[in-house]
Amino acid sequence: MKIDLNFSKDIIKEEELDSYEGDIFSIHNCLHSKDEYERMPLGWIDLPERYDGKEIENIKKTAYRLRSNSQAFISIGIGGSYLGSRAAVEMMQSDSPEIYFSGNNFSGTYIQQIVNKVKDKDFSICVISKSGTTLETAIAFRVFRDMLEKRYGKAEAKDRIIAITDKNKGALREIANKEGYETFEIPSNIGGRYSVLTPAALLTMAVAGINIEEVMKGARDAYSSYNDPKLQSNNCYRYSVLRNILYKKGKHIETLINYEPSMEYFGKWWQQLFGESEGKEGKGIFPAVLQFSTDLHSMGQYLQEGSKNVFETIIKVKNPPEDMNIPCFDDDIERLNYLKDMTFNDISNIAYKGAMKAHEEGGTPVISLEIPAIEEQCFGHMVYFMEKACAVSGYLLGVNPFDQPGVELYKKNMHKLLDR
Ligand code: PA5
């Protein structure tokens, strides 16, 4: 597949992009060098071509078992151990079991609501934490582990709990070993927000009936498409450079815009990826997420006439999975029968063109990324595209896109306040 990239030519000239050719060439060589691979958590960069087919088989087998004995499945995790799988499930789940996400906040109401939803159903859980010590995840795990053990007894509960964590370290690994849970590993050289194509997200996807082999196929396709050091022909690198050019022109906010509501969580995953990777040392683009046309009736005002520090990146789906015609009425009081030959998606396309033109005229630059469809291969391809674009953006900005000292500080302060 191919991601088409277009951008506001009145605001950014091709020559500006070309001036980054040398920088991109060096960053490409650095990211793909053995030294950098050993120094940085770059395990995701070649994952699509070296992933373990046997592990994918095991994930599928476990998912099959959980799908057949569970009416509901709870995926417990936060940040990089949550958003990727939720993005995939929201975009592509087609059948049962019901999937719930927990362990991603401290809301007593939210967790009680999930408890209420599963209390009369057969359910199973997976708990995902690379560090194995994240509090939101750990306390939610206690709630559902307790429920399972009381409902099924310890022995059967054990078969309904899957732990996904580091191979050796952390409290979750310790519990899993002690209790004999089935486990999958998050590789130590892949950070949370870069872990979508690992068991961290693949198990939940497979339980939701998503074809994870196709996801990996899409990622593999992206790996070879964006393994090209030439800026001119590499849309992933072009996207990173465009962001950098706009940042230097004072566009410090990037808003990722989706026209498909099912992609809302893809936006949230993207937001974490870029926000946590770039926002450091007093630098970085602030990533925001909008849903059009819904937010055209609210934030559209700001984009058109507000501060000129924002640019848009639109993800446009060429062939959305469904469509519908607009019904005709004889009396036609609202005078809408002229739309009789159009579908919802036709109108969405027109809204897209209209909003893009208006915002560009208002001085808001637009980058548009077009993907062919909402399906597994496209998802895998887009995940890899964004991961690599994010790493390259971080290097262009001069920050380490793989650490998160700010997040660690929040965790440390909270533990101190809780008197741990
Ligand atoms: O990207 C990251 O590293 C973070 O967002 C983590 O994924 C998040 O804090 C959850 O961490 P863990 O998987 O260790 O529970």
From TrEMBL:
What EC number is given for this enzyme? 5.3.1.9
Give the residues annotated as active site: E276, K411
Q: Which GO terms describe its cellular component?
A: cytosol
* Name of protein: Glucose-6-phosphate isomerase
- HAMAP family this protein is in? G6P_isomerase (MF_00473)
Enzyme class, top EC level, equals isomerase
This molecule's function is given as: Catalyzes the reversible isomerization of glucose-6-phosphate to fructose-6-phosphate.
Annotated Gene Ontology MF terms? Answer: carbohydrate derivative binding; glucose-6-phosphate isomerase activity; monosaccharide binding
Q: What is the lineage of its organism?
A: Bacteria, Bacillati, Bacillota, Clostridia, Lutisporales
The UniProt gene name for this protein comes to pgi
Per the annotation, which location comes first and is thus the protein's main one? Answer: cytoplasm
**Keywords, comma-separated and alphabetical:** Cytoplasm, Gluconeogenesis, Glycolysis, Isomerase
Q: In which pathway does it act?
A: Carbohydrate degradation; glycolysis; D-glyceraldehyde 3-phosphate and glycerone phosphate from D-glucose: step 2/4; Carbohydrate biosynthesis; gluconeogenesis
Q: Where in the cell is it found?
A: Cytoplasm
Give the similarity note. Answer: Belongs to the GPI family.
GO process annotations (BP): gluconeogenesis; glucose 6-phosphate metabolic process; glycolytic process
